[in-house]
Amino acid sequence: MDIEKVEKLVKKKRAKFPEKLIQEIAEAAERHDLDDKELDELVKEIKRAYTRSEVESGEAVGTVAAQSVGEPGTQMTMRTFHYAGVAELNVTLGLPRLIEIVDARKKISTPTMAIYFDEDHAADEEFVRTIANRIGKITLNDILKDFNVNYASMNMSVEIDDEQVKEKRLDYDEVLAKIEKTFKSVEINNNLLSFEPKITDPKHAIRELRLLADKVRDLQISGIKNIGKVVIRKEGQEWVIHTEGSNLGAVLKMDGVDRVRTTTNDIHEVEKVLGIEAARNSIIHEAQTTMEEQGLTVDVRHIMLVADMMTADGIVKSIGRHGISGEKASVLARASFEETGKHLLRASIRGEVDHLTGIIENIIIGQPIPLGTGSVGVIMKEK
């Protein structure tokens, strides 16, 4: 179906539709093979539904949005769920997650990433496993066959497991280079490492040896900063990596990673790497997903309004006394929210003036509110 034809029909009906809707109408008309009369009827019906769903002028959209997001929030559970089919990864859902989103927390409790791959590599299991081992944290302890600490001769011997190195797809020389760089007192003989620490204080010799043993075990030989465990799953025809922890910037730089679909649930990280518009989309997506997870449906326009308010100033702000509510222009509106005395005292010291343009401040002093019928002022000209 020709989009121009649909556009002409929409103009004729004096409907103002967004481009995407016009495109969808054209696609539907082609799919169902509609003739001109049927298309005419379809556009008429859509116009009726579209007009009905528009917000009236003077509607209290903020209050409605607050209720629409707040009310389902009271029906949410407080549990931490296992991540969709992955037993090893926990992720915060429900009310705690919603609070995390609107509070714009810098440190979220369970950051996680879903890493997708481009067409050439999505089905290549070997490639995905290699990348997973480059992303996930691997310590020396993960590839050891044998670990002996000898307190009599005050030394330590370690044997590296060749099979584990192969299975984790690591470069053997790189591993040895990392060990040599970190520990000066190491002797390497094929895959046997012996450590002869220089004891500085004979009284605490055993403690020093134990600390060295822990340091050897915990040496990170592979992985990206801030990312812990990784889980590889097959979703449909492609392989996907889910991580514990998140580092979007570093992952997007890797070859073969799909930069469009790879996501993180850390909104501040999205803002840092991809900018404020992406952060706004991330807030909408996270809030919607959290609601749907609990079987609650909220009109996306309410969530979009929340996301717009949070990102309107070019940074992600929280909703609350440290963010949007605490920065309102009206003194009475700020005082009615939290820390009443503090706001009133500050305003009186500064000599602030409240122009009573909002709703809260007019309710406090008992005037009609600028909403609905109160949003219209009638002026008569004298003859």
Q: Helices and strands in order, then pairings?
A:
Blueprint: H1 3-12, H2 19-31, H3 36-53, H4 61-73, E1 80-83, E2 86-92, H5 94-102, E3 112-115, H6 125-135, E4 138-139, E5 144-150, E6 155-160, H7 162-167, H8 172-182, E7 186-189, E8 192-195, H9 205-217, E9 220-222, E10 227-235, E11 238-245, H10 248-252, E12 263-264, H11 267-274, H12 276-293, H13 300-311, H14 331-337, H15 340-350, H16 360-365
Antiparallel strand pairs: 1-2, 3-11, 3-12, 4-9, 5-6, 6-8, 7-8, 10-11
Helix pairs in contact: 1-2, 4-13, 5-12, 11-12, 12-13, 14-15
Order of strands in the sheet with most strands? 10-11-3-12
CATH class category label of the domain at 138-222: Alpha Beta
Name the shape in a single word: flat
Low-pLDDT runs: none
Q: What's the helix count? A: 16
- Helix and strand content put the structural class at alpha+beta
Quaternary assembly: single chain
- Strand runs, count: 12
Radius of gyration: 30 Å
User: How is the main sheet built?
Assistant: 4 strands, antiparallel
**Could you give the distance between the termini?**
58 Å
Helix amount, in percent?
40-55%
Corresponding CATH architecture of the domain at 138-222: 2-Layer Sandwich
Mean pLDDT reading: 83
Q: What is the H-and-E element order?
A: HHHHEEHEHEEEHHEEHEEEHEHHHHHH
Fraction of residues in β-strands: 15-25%
Q: What is the third-level CATH name, the topology of the domain at 138-222?
A: Gyrase A, domain 2
